[in-house]
Amino acid sequence: MWTTRVAVARRTFADSRIRTLCFALLFAGITAANVVGYRKTYPTVADRLRFVHAFGDNKSVRLFYGVPHDLLTVGGYVAWRAGGTLSIFAAAWGLLAAVRAMRTEEDAGRQELVLAGLIGRGGAFAAALAAIGAGAVVLWLATFVGLVATKLPAAGSAYLALAVVAVIPVFVGVGALASQLAPNRRIALELGSGALAAAFLLRVVADTSSLGALRWATPLGWIEELRAFAGPRPAVLLLPLVAGAILLGVALAIALRRDVGRGLLPARDDAEPRLALLGSPAAQALRGERGSLIAWLLASGAFAFVLGVIANSVSAAAFSKRVQEQLAKLGASAVTTPAGYLGFAFLFFILAISLFCCSQIAAARREEADQQLETLLALPVGRRGWLAGRLAIAVGAAAALALSAGFLAWAGAASQGAPVSLADLLGAGANCLPTALLFLGLGALAFATVPRASIGIAYGLTALAFVWELFGPIVGAPSWLLGLSPFHHIGLIPATPFRAEAAAVMLVIAAGAALAALWAFGRRDLTGA
Amino acid sequence: MTAIRTEGLSKRYGETLALDSLDLEVSPGEVYGYLGPNGSGKTTTIRLLLGLHRPSAGRGFLFGIDAWHDPVEAHRRVAYVAGEPFLWPSLTSAETFAFLARLHGSTDTAYRDELVERFQLDVSKKVRALSKGNRQKVQLVAAFATRADLLLLDEPSSGLDPLMEVAFRQTVLEAKERGQTVFLSSHILSEVEALCDRVGILRRGRLVDQGTLAELRHLGAQTVEVTFAGAPPQLELPGVHVIQAGANALRCEVTGSVGPLIDALAHHDVVALTSREPSLEEIFLHHYDGSDGRVDD
Questions:
Q1: B154 contacts in A (CB within 8 Å)?
Q2: What angle (nearest 5°) sits at the alpha carbon of residue A425, between those of residues A421 and A429?
Q3: A3, B128: Cβ pair inside 8 Å?
Q4: Domain limit, last residue, from B161, B188, B212
Q5: Interchain CB distance below 8 Å, A7 and B103
Q6: CATH number at residue B176
Q7: One pLDDT digit (tens) per residue for chain A, 529 residues
C-alpha cells in the first residue's frame, strides 16, 4: 500500500516536472537578478537613502510590489521587490499543481484506473499532496540558491525563500477544494483564479490605502508580514499553514464522499438547445471561449479602473530630479506623474493581453489534441480557414480587452480629476496590440510547426521577454541584448510617445508569422495529445 | 464466499435512476455475462462495486468487502478494465504496465510477456501514439497479468479486431481454467454466449433476467419449422404462435412444451420438422421488445 502511494506520488510529480522546473528557474533568476541589480544601482548608503525617500510612501509602486519594510539593505530590498511578485507566482503554481493532480486526472478518466488499484481516496489525496510538496521544496531550494549564490546570508535567505513559498499551502488548498467542487478542470481553475485575484485585490487595497490591517485578511498580505530581512516574524508562518490545513481538510472530507469523476457542484448536463454561434467553426470556437473572454474582460477592466483611481495619488513633488534618475535605472522611469504612472502600468496590460493571446493559441491546440479538430476537418471545412478564424477571434478579443482597459483606466482617473485625456488612454490601450499580436503570430507559427510544444513556447516566449525587459537593465545587460525583447521597443503611452516604427515592425512580423503559420498548418499532420 | 454480492444496490444521478435495487451474486470461478444496451447501468454497477461512486442505497461486496468503505482491501483481489482506454499519453506501454503493476501490488511478469506476444503489442510505443484498439489491449494485458481472483471487465473487447477478439476469448478461458472469476459487461451477444456460465440482463437499471444460458433458453420461445406434403393446416393451439405461413410450410414460435404441437401435427402429412433453441439475441431482444429500454447516462 505504501509502494502504491509512492508510485502515484511519483507519477504526479513527473506529470508537472517541466512546469515546476520553469518556475524554479524563474524564481532563482528573479531573486539573483534583484540582488545583483540593487548592489549595482545603489552602491552607497546615500544612494539607498534617496531611494527609500522616494519609495517609502509611493502607493503606486506598492500596488505591484507590496509594502517595503526595509529598503536600506540588499535583503530587505529583494524581499520587497521580488518577494511580493514571486509569492503571486508561487500561489499560481500551487493552484495549477493542485488542479492538475486532483481534477485534470479525473477529467481524463485516469483517476478511475488509479483508484481501482490498491489505493483509497485518502491515499490518492495524500500521494498528490506529497508530490506537490516535493515541487514546493524544489521552488524553495531554487529561491534559496538564487539568494545564496549572490552572497546573501544563508539563514536570512532560507527564511526569505520560505516566505516566498509559504503561500503555496493556501493555494494548494484552494485548488484542492475547487477540484472537489467543480465538475471539470476549467471551472476548477476559474474558481481558483477568482480566489487568487481576490487575494491580490485585497493586498492592493491594503497596501495602497489607510486600511493596512486588511493585509491580515489575504494570504498574499501574510507573506508581506513575514518581513524577511526586516525584522522577521516567523510566527506568521502559522497563518498559511493553518489556512492550508483547513482548506485541505475540507477538500479531503469531500473527496472521501464524492463520486469519482463528478464534482459537488452539479454539472448542467441537460439543456434546451441554444443554436446561437453554431454557424461556423469560428463561431463555435467563440462560443467555447465566451466564458473565459468575459472573465478576462471583467478582471482586466476592474484592474484598469483601480489603476486609474490610484494614478492621481502620484505626485511629482515627492520626486527630486536625482530620484527620477534612480527610478529610470529601476526601469520605472516616469512614475512621477499620473500619466507617467499609467504608462508604466500599461506595460502590465501589454503583458496580460499577450498572455491572453497565448491562451488562444492554447485553446486552438487543445481543440486539436482532444481530436475535435479531426471531426471538424473531416467535414467540408478548410484547415487554413479554421486557423484564420481562430486567429481572427483572438485579434478581435485582444482589441476588445485593450480598448476596454484604456477606457476604464481613463474612467478611474477621471473620477479623481486626474489630468489625462480619453484619447491618450485609448491610445495606451491600442498600444498593447502590436506586442500582443506579435506573440499571437509567433504562437500560431509554433502551433503550425511544433504543435505539442506550442503552448509552452507561446507562454514561455512571452514570459521570458517580459522578465528580460524588467530585469535585464538591473543586471546591466548591453543594449543589443535588451533589444531582443519586444517590450523594450514600446512607447509607454501616455508617458512617452507612441513608437510608430517599432509598432509597425512588430505588426509586420506578426502578420508574416501568421501567414507562415497558415501555410505550414496546411501541410502538417494533425497531432493528438 | 461469493466473489460479487450486492444487496439492493441503487444509484441515482440527480433525476436519473441509473441502477435500481440490484441483487446479484457471482460465485468464485464463474464467468458472468452482464448484458444490457448503452446506458442501461452496466458501468454504473462496476463503479459502485469498485467504490468509485457512492451507492444511493444498498451495498455491494467484492469477496465480502464493501469497496466504498475499504477500497484498498476490496481491490486487493480485483483487476479492472475501464470502458474507455484512457491511459497516460506520455507513458509507453511498458511504463504503463510497470505503473499499473505497482498500483495493483502484484503481477505475473512471465504471463504478461506471453500476453504481450499474444496481443501483438509494441511495448516501447507511447500510449498517445496507439490506436483505441491498441490502448484497449494495453489495459487488457495489464489486468489479466495480475492474475487477480476477480476481473471486472467493462466492454473489454470494444475496439478489438476479430483476431484480437479470439485472443481475448482465449485469455478469458485461461482465467476461467485457473479458477478466476470474470465479470464481463458487454453488449456483444456472441461473446457472452461463447464465454459465460451465467448471464444477467439489465434493462433501464433493473436486472430483468438472470440464469444460465440453458435456463434462459428454457424460458424463451423455440422456433419450430414444419414442411408439409400439401397445404399447411390452420393451427390454433395455446403457446404456439405462427410467425410465417408459406405454400406448404409453417414457422412458429413455441413457448413451453412442444407436446401439443406434435400431437396436432400427427394428423397431418409432415415431410420435415426442425426445431431450434432461441439464441441469446432472441432472448435479449425479447426483453426489449416494444420499448427502447434505454436511459441516459
A1: none
A2: 165
A3: no
A4: B212
A5: yes
A6: 3.40.50.300
A7: 688 999 999 999 998 898 899 899 989 988 988 888 888 878 888 888 877 776 666 666 677 677 788 888 888 888 888 888 899 999 999 999 999 999 999 988 899 999 999 999 999 999 999 999 999 999 999 999 999 999 899 999 999 999 999 999 999 999 999 999 998 888 899 899 999 989 988 888 888 777 888 889 999 999 888 888 888 899 999 999 999 999 999 999 999 999 988 888 877 777 777 777 787 888 888 888 888 889 889 989 988 988 888 777 665 444 555 555 555 554 554 556 778 778 888 888 999 999 999 999 999 999 998 888 888 888 888 889 999 999 999 999 999 999 999 999 999 988 888 888 899 999 999 999 999 999 999 999 999 999 999 999 999 999 889 888 877 777 778 888 888 899 888 888 887 888 899 999 999 999 999 999 999 998 888 888 7
Q: Which of A117, A121, A528 sits opposite B103 (nearest CB)?
A: A117
CA dist A5 and A12 (Å) reads 11
* Full residue range of the structural domain in which residue B254 is found: 221-277
Chain A interface includes B151 (CB < 8 A) = no
Contact between A472 and A485 under an 8 Å Cβ cutoff? The reply is: yes
Is B76's CB within 8 Å of A261's CB? no
Q: Which residue from B minimizes the CA distance to A260?
A: B52
**pTM exceeds 0.90, yes or no:** no
Q: Do B50 and A116 touch (CB under 8 A)?
A: yes
Chain B hits for A262, Cβ within 8 Å: 53
ipTM of the complex in this document: 0.76
- Examine the domain organization and report whether B225 and B170 are in the same domain: no
Question: Which chain B residue shows the shortest CA-CA distance from A5?
Answer: B103
Sequence-separated (6 or more) residues with CB below 8 Å from residue B130: B93, B138
SS3 of residue B150 by DSSP = strand
**Residue contact A3–B86, C-beta within 8 A:** no
Angle at A518 between CA A516 and CA A521, to 5 degrees: 105
Question: Per the CB < 8 Å rule, is A119 touching B71?
Answer: yes
For A243, list phi and psi in degrees, rounded to 5: -60, -45
Which chain B residue shows the shortest CA-CA distance from A12?
Answer: B88
Distances (CA, A) of B95 to B6, B80, B126, B160: 35, 18, 9, 22
Task: Write the DSSP symbol of residue B66.
Answer: -
- Smallest CA–CA distance, residue A520 to chain B, in Å, is 22
Does B154 lie in the same domain as B24? yes
For residue B126, tell me if it sits in a domain.
Answer: yes
CA nearest to A118 within chain B:
B72
Chain-chain contact of B75 with A108 (C-beta, under 8 angstroms): no
CB contact under 8 A, A115 and B50: yes
Contact B84 A120 (CB under 8 A): no
The answer to whether residues A409 and A425 touch, using CB atoms and an 8 Å cutoff, is yes
Q: Is residue B64 part of a domain?
A: yes
Instruction: Kindly tell me the sign of the dihedral angle through the C-alpha atoms of B99, B100, B104, B106.
Output: negative
pLDDT in tens, A370-421: 888 888 888 888 889 999 999 999 999 999 999 999 999 999 988 888 888 8
pLDDT in tens, B199-254: 999 989 999 889 988 787 766 678 888 999 888 888 788 888 888 888 888 888 88
Domain annotation covers residue B287: no
Q: Are residues B246 and B176 in the same domain?
A: no
What is the grid cell recorded at B43? 458501468
Q: Are residues B208 and B259 in the same domain?
A: no
Within a domain: B286: no
Residues B159 and B241 in one domain: no
Alpha carbons A222 and A155: distance in angstroms, whole number: 20
How many A/B residue pairs have CB atoms within 8 Å?
81
The model's pLDDT over A77-106, given as tens digits with 9 standing for 90+, comes to 888 888 888 999 999 999 999 999 999 999
Cα separation, B176 vs A159, whole angstroms: 62
Domains: count for chain B = 2
> Are residues B226 and B165 part of one domain?
no
Residue B53 with chain A: CB contacts under 8 Å:
259-260, 262
Same domain, B108 and B241: no
Residues of A near B (Cβ–Cβ under 8 Å) read 1, 3-4, 7-8, 11, 108-110, 112-121, 123, 257-262, 266, 269, 528-529
User: Residue A120 and residue B71: Cβ atoms within 8 Å?
Assistant: yes
Q: Are residues B154 and B240 in the same domain?
A: no
